[in-house]
Amino acid sequence: MKYTLRKLLGFFLIFSSVTLLSACEDITIYLMSFQADKYFSAPSAQGNRFEELGNGLYAFQHGLDRSLIVNTTEGLVVVDSFNEKMAKDLKQILNQKFPKKPVSHLIYSHHHLDHASGGYELNPGKVIAHENTRWHFDHYLGTKTLKPTHYISGSQSLKFGNHEIKLIDFEHAHAEHLYGFYFPKDKLLYGPDLALCQTFFPFGYPDYNHYGQIHALEEAAKLNFDRFISSHFNNGDKSCVTETLELFKNTRAIILENFEQYGQPNEADGEWFRQVIGSTKKMIKRDYSNWHGYDEMGLAFMLRQLTGAVMGY
């Protein structure tokens, strides 16, 4: 009996050890998913809302994402379709609010699929994107992406009936080319993925060049606007742009200072990494711990800034 119990206990300990080891392997994934869930579950990223901005301008928030809509005499202009579900819901709302008025134009701010999917749900007459995104759209095979019918380049002033939209080409910032949408008379800037309002970008802000981003934010700050419509989370005013600019500049500056103090990256070891990231985190915590996403995405942003400083982007 004692032998049987001892044997069963041994099997139990082995099983428990294997289970524990398996759990340890998955704990990183669990923690990342927990942080992501907390970040994307913010109240500002919940629900659907169609908002009137004045002078024929509207915004449609669908959970995390926000499109811009312009009601013109030619038809409805939509900037960024985001995804199939969002575009379908938006089309239903547009049919209710503007009966028998078609979507004349869909404009893509950039080529990323999280902004440029599901456009066919809107059934637009024309689809506009930057010329340098053509390669990407040509290779989006098997995706639910409506290909552009017209390509443009550079900053442009586009006239749609009684409305004029200034497309600002923020090149070499986020994605290859990123358009901002400026309405001088309304003092309004819709800046998809250009800046967030006191919010850290998710996962280190994928696919951006630091120097291009600084230039884009500096150029945007020169525009005369007091309303900033964000593609994600809360809207705000010009401070959304200027504070995002300071976050990027300050973080890169402290990392470069740490390189001077603790040695260059080619001399790096574990202690170097702890010193550089630790020192950077102190500054980030002091100045930005009240921003949404500090706990969940702050470290990812610092790591992305560190690798960018090392590699020159």
Question: How would you sum up this structure, described in words?
Answer:
This protein is of the alpha/beta class. It folds into two domains: 44-238, Metallo-beta-lactamase, Chain A, CATH 3.60.15.10; 249-311, no CATH class. The protein contains eight helices and twelve strands. The strands form two sheets. Strands 1-2-3-4-5-6-7 form a seven-stranded mixed sheet, with helices on one face. The longest helix is centred in the N-terminal third of the chain and has 39 residues, at 2-40. Mean pLDDT is 90; it is low at 1-18.
Features:
Metallo-beta-lactamase, Chain A, 8 helices, 43% helix, disordered N terminus
Mean pLDDT: 90
The Cα radius of gyration reads 24 Å
Strand content: 15-25%
Structural class: alpha/beta
Distance between the termini: 68 Å
Number of H/I helices: 8
CATH superfamily of the largest domain: Ribonuclease Z/Hydroxyacylglutathione hydrolase-like
Strand order in the sheet with the most strands: 1-2-3-4-5-6-7
Q: How many β-strand runs?
A: 12
Describe the global form. elongated
Query: How is the main sheet built?
Result: 7 strands, mixed
- How many domains comprise the coordinates? 2
CATH architecture identity of the largest domain: 4-Layer Sandwich
Instruction: Write the H/E string, N to C.
Output: HEEEEHEHEHEEEEEHEHHH
Would you tell me which CATH topology of the largest domain applies? Metallo-beta-lactamase, Chain A
CATH class of the largest domain: Alpha Beta
Helicity, as a percent range: 40-55%
Oligomer: single chain
Low-confidence stretches: 1-18
